[in-house]
Records
---
Amino acid sequence: MKVNILIGIVLLAVVYMTCKNFKKTEATEAPVAAVATPAPSNGKVLKIMGEGADSTNRIQFSEPPPHVDVPWDKMPRPSTSRRAFMSSGYWNPVTAIQPTDTTIYKQFRPKWLKFKDDQTFDIIIKNKVMETGHWAFDEENFVLYLSCTDPYFNNSWNIKERGFRMILIGNTAINLTGIQVRLDMQNQLPAN
């Protein structure tokens, strides 16, 4: 009987110490979580979004990428198989992501690309050609060069391919945007 009372007293002491330590830990962590992260100092912050689904602050850039001079004409002519692959259908940007703009996909999704054998390409929106540009392909480094006035496509892009799907990766010597665009090839344009 005395042993049971002794075990009960020890158990109460352990519970009391655990609760006391738990309250101290909770109180010290709260101010740390409330510290705000500093805004970047590059001066291009357009919009700071509030609390998101993951409860972190996000900095949003909504400007188009800066214009770059794409040296498409300095590249050798792409191989016959590359020209045939690129011009075999219509390329649709299914989605796009960028670390600083979560809405970047809206700038790509309505557009379709039609590459041609003569190293020109059309940007098509709602089945109408909106612009024609030039393209080149660096076979050795797997880099696609697109020269046009559209600020979102005008750049050089590292390419990853899987079948008739290309991922354009904005991480080259002249493309510092970090944008990634997934293009899927279709045989024809969608009906309006």
Note: Helices lie at 2-33, 80-86, 105-108.
---
Amino acid sequence: MMFKNSLKLLCANFDKVWKLLIYQILSWGIVIALLAPFYSTFADIATTVWAEYNLGSVFTSGTFYGLSVSVGEALFSVLGAIFAFIKILFTTNVWIGIYFAIIIYVLRSILADVGRFVTCEMMYGYMATSTKRSFTGTLLRTLRKSLSYAGMKLLFVLPFNAIIVAGVYGLSLLHGGALSILLPILIIIIPSLLLAFKETFICGWAPAMIVFDCNVFKAFPKGMSAVLRRGLRVFSTALIIFLLTFLLAMALGLYALIIILPVLFPLIYIFEMVMFFSSQGMRFYVDADTILTPKRLEEVDKIDNAKYLL
């Protein structure tokens, strides 16, 4: 039901897809502008790596990469190119490498999570009162809270991101031999499991800050309490979302991510709000004419906790 209701809300609020997309484009514009002074360095390294790993064939292939390049070779080429780019960059000039890492990982992550918080805030207004709020107004009004959320989340997800990178890198080493037959399935399943596991730990954080109007530190345990009430359902819904994303990307080719990602991110943010409202037993609009009434909090909470509601 969470997946179904998230899709309904996405369709009813598709304007947020375009607003968030414009915000992401502007965010990348800021990132590119800050990297522009060293453009020639980045361009030279990228051109060398692109040709060395033949990335053109990787991005134009599709249908599980069965036509021109195997999926294992594709994954190995993409990851190899990324690691080679970073290695050459730091070897050429370590200070430019550090600057690049700060801009791409730290600044870009913070900007993305500010957009995540703003989208959740706008969805709260729609789900609670069926009102639509402007992106810019919401961004300015919640900037202090969204920046604190983005900064703390950046630190919190570091170990999760390290595990995901290590897992995907391990998969890239399996190309060739009998395991190549299973690799297309593993590349869909394993990253989806890891990302769903990460999403389960963070999906209640922003909604708790918004709904309870509390700071980032108080919001995390409140968000986790909401998640744990429907833990398996939350994990399985997140898993379905990521499985569908990887399946489409593998079938259509990596260029399809240009279309998939602008829809994926708003869907995940909406799913977080749906999860929180449902876990808290809060009524919410799924469209302009329909109000959904989940089970009350005392019906979904554990019996030991429910006694405090009497």
Note: Confidence is low (pLDDT under 50) at residues 63-68, 303-310.
---
Amino acid sequence: MKLTGDKIIIESRYEIDDIQAMIDCYLEHGRQEDVTKSELKRLRDELDALYMCW
């Protein structure tokens, strides 16, 4: 991953796997004060679609 301005550029499928694992961990152990479970699940689904299109 690299940061370009205000965007994060994902450079490989492995990075998507890592992000999804982080989301799963946060869903299981984190406090959803800033973001809801549904928002996290939607983000995870969007990352899954990106992975499949790669």
Note: The mean pLDDT is 90.
